[in-house]
Every structure is written in structure tokens, then in C-alpha cells.
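Sequence, please.
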């Protein structure tokens, strides 16, 4: 079974690729060298450099495997090329208002690019799923852990 596509912006893909290359080309070889040096020092049972190095190497290898899978499943979508700019799709920056007229501005990005503090929510988040396909003036109901909320779409923008 093929994994579902991992929608991601070009900038988000570049960040994943950069992390993969840094781990693979810089950190991992340096760590292997340290482990090799530590192994040559004799007793490995009490050798902190060796024990910590092996543990860190497993962490790096796990992360490399994860990044590799995510990049393989990645479908790079450039929001600037969105044809239907009147509706909310991947990469849209949306201003929404709740029942109390509290406004929030959100950008729908790939799940690997999320940053709630800066208003970047994952494409598969409940709020993003509810907003998909909405136009200005549409009201969408979202089921959140705190209960149901209605949001009205105030603006929809895409990068130039």
C-alpha cells in the first residue's frame, strides 16, 4: 500500500532535505569517528563516549529513516501556482472569525511544516480539513476537543 501523499511547500521540502543532508553528511560521520576512537580505548562497558555515541547514532539513523520516508512520500505543491484563488486550498492564508468575532490568520501547510505559534497549521488538522474548499463568507463547523465551534472565512490569500 502506498502511503498517502505528504503535501509540502517547496520551502518545507528544502528544510527536510537540509536536515537530512546535515545529519547524513556531517553529524553521522563525525559520530562514527568518535565511536571508533572510543572503541579503541578498551573497556566499552564504562566508556561514556562509546555508550553515548552508539545511542546517538541510533537516534540519527532513526531520524534519517523518518526523513527519507517523508521525502519519498512528499508531493511538493507551490501555493503561488494555485489556480482557484477564491477558495481555501493547500498553501492558502486564511483569516477566520469565530462566534465572538475573534479573528485568527492561519496558513495551511504540510504536516511537517506546522508551527501553531506562527499560525501555520497542518493540512490534515481538524480546522484545516473543515476549511478546505471554503470561500469568503462561508461558515464552517469544526469539532475540537473543547467542543464544536463555527468559523466564518473572512479572507483567502495566496503568495504571489
Amino acid at each position: 500500500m502506498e502511503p498517502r501523499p505528504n503535501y509540502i511547500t517547496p520551502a518545507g521540502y528544502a528544510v527536510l532535505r537540509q536536515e537530512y543532508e546535515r545529519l547524513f553528511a556531517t553529524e553521522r560521520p563525525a559520530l562514527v569517528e568518535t565511536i571508533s576512537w572510543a572503541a579503541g580505548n578498551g573497556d566499552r562497558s564504562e566508556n561514556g563516549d562509546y555508550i553515548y555515541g552508539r545511542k546517538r547514532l541510533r537516534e540519527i539513523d532513526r531520524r534519517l529513516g523518518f526523513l527519507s520516508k517523508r521525502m519519498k512520500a512528499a508531493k511538493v505543491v507551490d501555493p503561488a501556482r494555485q489556480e482557484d484563488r477564491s477558495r481555501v486550498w493547500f498553501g492558502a492564508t486564511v483569516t477566520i472569525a469565530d462566534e465572538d468575532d475573534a479573528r485568527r490568520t492561519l496558513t495551511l501547510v504540510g504536516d511537517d511544516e506546522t508551527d501553531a505559534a506562527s499560525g501555520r497549521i497542518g493540512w490534515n488538522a481538524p480546522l484545516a480539513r473543515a476549511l478546505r474548499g471554503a470561500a469568503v463568507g462561508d461558515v464552517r463547523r469544526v469539532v475540537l476537543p473543547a467542543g464544536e465551534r463555527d468559523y466564518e472565512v473572512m479572507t483567502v490569500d495566496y503568495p504571489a
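Strands lie at 6-8, 74-76, 93-97, 103-109, 120-122, 139-144, 147-157.
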